[in-house]
Amino acid sequence: xxxxxxxxxxxxxxxxxxxxxxxxxxxxxxxxxxxxxxxxxxxxxxxxxxxxxxxxxxxxxxxxxxxxxxxxxxxxxxxxxxxxxxxxxxxxxxxxxxxxxxxxxxxxxxxxxxxxxxxxxxxxxxxxxxxxxxxxxxxxxxxxxxxxxxxxxxxxxxxxxxxxxxxxxxxxxxxxxxxxxxxxxxxxxxxxxxxxxxxxxxxxxxxxxxxxxxxxxxxxxxxxxxxxxxx
Length: 231
Description:
This protein is an alpha/beta fold. The chain has a single domain (2-224), classed as 4-Layer Sandwich (Metallo-beta-lactamase, Chain A). The N and C termini lie close together (6 Å). The protein has helices at residues 36-40, 54-57, 60-67, 75-83, 153-160, 177-187, 208-214, and strands spanning 2-5, 11-14, 19-22, 46-48, 70-74, 89-92, 97-100, 103-109, 115-117, 123-125, 130-136, 139-143, 164-168, 192-196, 219-220, 228-230. Strand 9 (115-117) and strand 10 (123-125) form a beta hairpin. The strands form 3 sheets. The protein has a 7-stranded mixed beta sheet, covered by helices on one side. It has a 7-stranded mixed beta sheet with strand order 7-8-11-12-13-14-15, covered by helices on one side. 23% of the residues lie in helices and 29% in strands. The chain is built from 7 helices and 16 strands.
């Protein structure tokens, strides 16, 4: 299994049989590795969305139509995407698990908002924000989405036993390095941690170097956008 970080919270996963893209924020993302889609993504089976902010839904409509991919997301986002012409959807909610073609998608809690501004100026509510645990090829991967620290991360670890985590560290809109390190040191028990949601914009002040200094459990792997880790 190869797991690519594509800047911000976007992650591309190649399993033995299927390809998965999480939070595809490409257009407007200064850290997205230009040309990655054209060079690397020859097919796409699943699009996974953690919540309804523009920097996470991103290019979903275009990409889902281009690759005829199935979108896995909270019910409200799936219904909105259906109105945009996306027919292949797997709506779910926090606490649920779906199994599709030997891949398990479990939606777990995150502490964050999930509302998008519309052209009319009226906010569009997109249900709750979430994280995902994806199980494939004998591995369990945790994408925390955008979130603050919360003690029930310990239950996510206990129930789903993730071994690798994509953990936000940028601060202001998510955990910063200190709280992310506490989450990994005290509640999660990840073998490998990839910091995400940092460096995209100047407002995101948290850095992997700060996070690494406080991390006591698990090994941090700092990826540059477009790089991958293989497990």
